[in-house]
Design brief:
Helix 7 crosses helix 9, helix 12 runs antiparallel to helix 13 and helix 16 crosses helix 17. The strands form four sheets. The protein has a three-stranded antiparallel β-sheet. Strands 8-10-9 form a three-stranded antiparallel β-sheet. It is elongated, with a radius of gyration of 33 Å. The chain is 52% helix and 15% strand. With 374 residues, the chain is of the alpha+beta class. It has four domains: 132 residues, Winged helix-like DNA-binding domain superfamily/Winged helix DNA-binding domain (Arc Repressor Mutant, subunit A), CATH 1.10.10; 87 residues, Winged helix-like DNA-binding domain superfamily/Winged helix DNA-binding domain (Arc Repressor Mutant, subunit A, Orthogonal Bundle); 68 residues, no CATH class; 46 residues, no CATH class.
């Protein structure tokens, strides 16, 4: 199959399902939907045939462990999901169904069928999103896949505000898992959205709503990234951009979102502009480096911070210069001598044989030596 043939028109109701399935199971399910739709268009029946190699190719499954892969497909007949959770398709009510009605696997051949609810919307979905399965098979987290499909389903359309309980259902998070919202935010929200930002054309953000101190609702926003996506293995040819990429923490240097942002910025800004925003991101970014860096670079968040930083550096350098100025040093030593107590001064004078002038000179030389100026 060519890349264009790996685009799936997936009904919105089938996108908004409770995520009780793993990332690999969702990839397989999307592959089966794609293959079934092509068969349904040409043959019109409700039983579909393919082979394991085709499914593995679409999903990016590279292991030779066919036993595990077969078990994964069979599990789809036992998993029941809720669909149309957000009610985008007003013609279809909320409901639940098994992902597959049945599947048999023999000699590498796979025969499967869907419940009637899926067959009814598979051929002519009135409300759908076009999903690129080439992109989906690169996503590792089941949460990232769910965010990507949700984002594609609502591109340039407002996503309804949802209760946290509804969000947990959409992500398939067990009621006893991630009870602490900080853990939910780190492990699900930020991790999944950051992967979408890094590996797809979408940018997803969210707002939280609280009742007192408790987060009760969440609202997502999705849009296409303005920065063009280049293959990750394309080198940064501009030498200045390449040099600045070395300022980025090593674990983020190969992220195409970061590379593309730097390349794009060099089209309209100088090296200092890009450098200060990288430095600012290194110091201020939280869990989502790329998610912080892209808007930071675009809006120059580092501008005022950089000015303050340069002033601080200049002040420190000036203080250091004065500290090392021989004239300043001698002036400070003279002041110390004048303010020295009589008993302490007498110790130095006695060591100089009672010669006050010699005692002072010896004191000055000793202090210079102590401060490293001799």
């Amino acid at each position: 199959m060519n890349n264009k043939n790996l685009e799936l028109k997936k009904h919105s109701a089938a996108i908004q399902i409770s995520q009780t399935i793993s990332a690999q199971q969702r990839k397989c399910y999307n592959a089966l939907l794609l293959l079934a739709k092509k068969r349904l268009i040409t043959h019109g029946n409700s039983k579909f045939q393919t082979n394991l190699a085709t499914i593995k190719g679409i999903t990016g499954y590279t292991s030779d462990d066919d036993v595990t892969f077969k078990a994964l497909l069979k599990q789809l007949t036992t998993i029941t999901v809720e669909y149309n959770l957000l009610g985008k398709d007003t013609d279809n009510s909320w409901g639940a169904f098994a992902l597959l009605a049945g599947v048999t696997i023999q000699n590498g051949k796979v025969e499967y069928s869907f419940p009637h609810q899926i067959n009814d919307i598979l051929l002519n979905p009135k409300m759908y999103s076009i999903l690129d399965l080439n992109i989906i098979h690169k996503l590792d987290s089941k949460y990232a896949i769910a965010f990507y499909e949700l984002g594609r389903d609502y591109i340039n359309v407002e996503i309804p505000k949802m209760h946290i309980t509804q969000f947990r259902e959409l992500m398939g998070i067990d009621s006893v898992k991630y009870k602490n919202f900080a853990h939910l935010r780190e492990k699900v929200l930020d991790k999944g959205i950051d992967e979408v930002l890094e590996k797809t054309e979408l940018k997803i953000t969210y707002n939280l709503y609280k009742k007192g101190r408790k987060v009760t609702h969440i609202k997502f926003h999705t849009e296409k990234q303005q920065i063009p996506i280049f293959p990750i293995d394309i080198p940064v040819k501009n030498m200045e951009a390449d040099d600045l990429l070395n300022l980025v923490p090593e674990q983020h240097r190969r992220k195409k979102t970061v590379i593309n942002a730097i390349r794009q910025a060099f089209k309209s800004h100088n090296k200092t502009y890009v450098e200060r925003n990288i430095t600012y991101t290194n110091e201020k970014a939280g869990r989502s480096y790329a998610g912080f860096f892209v808007p930071c670079l675009k809006q120059d968040w580092a501008h005022d911070w950089w000015i303050d930083k340069q002033h601080e550096i200049k002040t420190t350098e000036e203080a250091e210069r004065k500290r090392k100025d021989p004239v300043v040093i001698e002036s400070q030593i003279r002041a110390q001598w004048r303010n020295m107590g009589d008993i302490s001064r007498m110790v130095f004078e006695k060591a100089a044989g009672g010669d006050v002038e010699l005692a002072y000179k010896q004191y000055v030389e000793n202090e210079k030596q102590r401060l490293g100026f001799v």
